[in-house]
Specification:
The protein is of the alpha+beta class. The chain has a domain at 1-34. 13% of the residues lie in helices and 16% in strands. It has two helices and two strands; from the N terminus they run E-H-E-H. The chain has helices at 10-13, 68-73, and strands at residues 4-9, 27-32. The chain has a two-stranded antiparallel sheet with strand order 1-2. The protein is elongated.
């Protein structure tokens, strides 16, 4: 089995992982192993329904641009 083992500064990992405070500003060892299931299968995405809007119809006017007055109120 192939793997990667490397010692790096925890600062390099802080943007990738949420490190516990006890590991901050220290050298840490990172070991990358393959997952048990190496074949990542693409699952077909299912269409999702909004749970809070069951049975509600969205009118076509919902998708129209906002009036200039509303855009100015939002600072746009």
């Amino acid at each position: 089995m192939e793997y990667i083992r490397q010692t790096v500064s925890s600062a390099e990992l802080s943007g990738i992982f949420n490190l516990p405070p006890s590991l901050l500003n220290k050298m840490v060892e990172v070991i990358i192993l393959p997952a048990e299931n190496n074949d990542i299968e693409e699952r077909p995405k299912q269409k999702r329904q909004l749970g809070f809007a069951k049975g509600a119809d969205v009118p076509d006017s919902f998708f129209e641009p906002l009036p200039e007055e509303d855009l100015q109120a939002w600072g746009l």
